[in-house]
């Protein structure tokens, strides 16, 4: 199954049904371990398990709206892959999540948020973007790592890196 087919299939299922499809996340190569924190909460997550996936979804929730969404598996795998690559280059990092899912209301009150943000859920509740702050690693180093696979969007901001899953590669640097 290619990336486009997976996204099309995944967008039509709910979180509960999506948990049954997690076997896809364990196919080779396997990048399913994430070390993330948000506020005082820090978890080392294996999102290939239903419990781990639910924990990842909770960590990436819209805090303002108290809503949990369906994180895209490829997005989680890209984050896990980036942590492995950085660790292999002697730069272990925990990712501090600054934003995952955003409801339309939350997105509308965030200054500079894109109207058609990849943080917004699609009709099945799935979202395709994360904003993360690497702890112990330079933001530019993380951005270069995330740009390497050459798919999706990577935005560099003063305090964090945005990355998302999309059909084409793009990158930008915020002036703020």
Automatic annotation (TrEMBL):
<feature type="domain" description="Peptidase M15A C-terminal">
    <location>
        <begin position="59"/>
        <end position="164"/>
    </location>
</feature>
<protein>
    <submittedName>
        <fullName>DUF882 domain-containing protein</fullName>
    </submittedName>
</protein>
<dbReference type="InterPro" id="IPR009045">
    <property type="entry name" value="Zn_M74/Hedgehog-like"/>
</dbReference>
<dbReference type="InterPro" id="IPR013230">
    <property type="entry name" value="Peptidase_M15A_C"/>
</dbReference>
<dbReference type="Pfam" id="PF08291">
    <property type="entry name" value="Peptidase_M15_3"/>
</dbReference>
């Amino acid at each position: 199954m290619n990336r486009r087919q997976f996204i099309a299939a995944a967008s039509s299922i709910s979180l509960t049904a999506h948990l049954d499809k997690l076997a896809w996340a364990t196919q080779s190569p396997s990048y399913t371990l994430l070390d993330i924190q948000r506020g005082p909460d820090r978890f080392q997550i294996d999102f290939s398990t239903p419990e781990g996936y639910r924990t990842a979804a909770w960590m990436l929730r819209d805090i303002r709206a108290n809503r949990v969404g369906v994180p895209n598996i490829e997005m989680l795998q890209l984050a896990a892959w980036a942590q492995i690559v950085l660790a292999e280059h002697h730069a272990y990092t925990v990712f501090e999540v600054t934003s995952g899912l955003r409801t339309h209301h939350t997105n509308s009150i965030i200054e500079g948020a894109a109207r058609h943000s990849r943080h917004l859920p699609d009709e099945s509740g799935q979202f395709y973007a994360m904003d993360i702050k690497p702890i112990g690693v330079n933001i530019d180093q993380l951005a270069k790592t995330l740009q390497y696979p050459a798919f999706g969007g990577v935005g560099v901001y003063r305090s964090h890196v945005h990355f998302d899953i999309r059909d084409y590669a793009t990158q930008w640097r915020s002036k703020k």
